[in-house]
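Dear colleague,

Following up on Tuesday's group meeting, I ran the structure prediction for the two-component complex that the binding team flagged. I've pasted the input sequences exactly as they went in, so you can double-check that nothing got truncated or mislabelled along the way. The structure tokens for the whole assembly follow below. Feel free to forward this to whoever is handling the docking comparison.

Inputs:
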Amino acid sequence: MSRAPLLAVRNLRIEFPTRRGALVAVDDISFSIAHGEVLGVVGESGAGKSLTGAAIIGLIEPPGRIAAGEVKLNGLRIDNLPEAEMRKVRGREIGAIFQDPLTSLNPLYTVGRQLTETITTHLHVSQAQARKRAVDLLGSTGIPAPDRRIDQYPHQFSGGMRQRVVIALALAAEPKLVIADEPTTALDVSIQAQIIALLKRLCREHETAVMLVTHDMGVIAETADRVAVMYAGRIAEVGPVADVIHRPQHPYTVGLMGSIPSLGFESERLVQIEGSMPRLTAIPAGCAFHPRCEKAFDRCARERPDLMPAGVSAAACWLHDTSARRAA
Amino acid sequence: MAAVVAPAPSAHIGEVIVAAKNIAKYFDVSPPWLNRVLERSGRQILHAVDGVDFEIRRGETLALVGESGCGKSTVARMLVGLYAPSSGKVEFFGRDLSEMNTASGRALRQKRQMIFQDPYASLNPRWRVADIVAEPLRTHGLIKDEHAIKARVDELLTQVRLAPADKEKYPHQFSGGQRQRISIARALATHPEFLVCDEPTSALDVSVQAQVLNLMKDLQRELGLTYLFISHNLAVVHHISDRVGVMYLGRIVELAPKRLLFARPAHPYTRMLLDAIPDLAMSGRARTPVAGEVPNPLSPPPGCTFHPRCPHANQRCRTEAPLLRAFRRAEGESLVACHAVEEGRI
């Protein structure tokens, strides 16, 4: 890809100050998203994946703060913008879809009012044009009779329909990037399939890049181009989706893939990673995964690995350190 | 106690332990009386479960799957006696649960226990683990001696792969997966034979889910347990169950041995569900999104409740509700409630 990446995150570190020192929730992570690319971010609860998404759109809840690093959109830093500037970026440049459609919609306003407000805030159009655009958007998300539904309130929509409205809202100002944080987790499987198909279609049509944050590897498998696996605030592995799923390189990814029950084959036991992810207050020294890792050796407890090439992907694991292997 | 003889551990499928006989549960969700008078509206009755029949045999895992609101959790609650069925009956070892409110029923009631979905809400945050796990022992008066209770709690915690030292801690000191182990230890305290598990892993992360599912399988083998497993996750059901019942709007639409159901689903709704799930093994495959949503259970469609979303629906489906009937194929026999299957149209 010759063009510069749409989004570049460099050495991002997010901290929560406490009386007993700062808790590091996201620790020195770097990644980029190209124009029109779908990057999946997976990890278990507390891995820092949602926080990373929130940092990009400038919505970290205090006392959490970005302690180091930078976020660049189209080459311009957006992590240090004043709130007024950031509000223009949010919605116009970056759209957001959250897990629970009920909390992202205002229950007191009609769906149409919320859509037209977003459109007129970011685009220079008249009220009438904005309303027409809102009806078109609702229609394109597959909501039947959009010209009638637009004057209804969020509670008059079902869960799946509400998430369609949220997607319409996120895409209202034609952003270049959409941060979708667990967009289908609150929905039933049959509705989930509809919403994922919709998100894929709309983003392809508008060439919108997506950062898809989810704990559901199945959703990533059929949606994302590349995937980043997060563990305890760091990226454990990043690579093309098929490689990460079928040829995982990091021991954590290997365990994670094995622990997902599959319809494709039958097994008596699932692969089990002993223990659970460390709490932020007790992240081990060295590689954060080493106490649970079967392949850990002495170096893992001492030094923290950065991402290094591993097959087609990159993994933060000393097993892939070729210089050390040559020396040994 | 004579009743606490553990059954011989065996994979052999034995006698019927639990039978649901045409059970139904209706909830009155009407607005208050004054509103009904002013708005001239009638009562509103929600048919959460509308005539469900099945049997579970010793050592077997029956799973019930379906989308939210299909009535699967209501069935689970009726089986353990948290809800009384509006009609029909639940038989446990051949005896009607509702007639067991006597001292003689007490021994039988200890034989069934439940594991709940949310390990954060189902454990009392102010109690130590020792008291949580010992509660059923004390309530049922199974063990009187405090030393013996302590020994039994240690044994239970070891059984669920926790350390006996953990009993001095409080629930907040444990992760989600460990808390679910505590719930399992509490459920096992009375030497149950039948466990109802209502979405036991859906609040957990996948790697922790794998630990809990493996533990449940191990315990089933070691203790000869019988499970009713409620889940919306078909991949989990595929892993853990022997037979699967698919529910839609309060009814079972298909009940089949696991392999048959996943290899050759018969009911259009089962096919739709299987098409809709993302699966790693089939990465890159486009899912077939199904049109439509689950209808409002307060006003279910007439005839087969699935007909508005079904590609095979015809006039008969719109007017006449199909019954759950045996459907024989070369691969095996299943129960299906579908006119199209019965008529051989699909």
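Chain A touches chain B through 47 residues (CB under 8 Å).

Cheers,
M.
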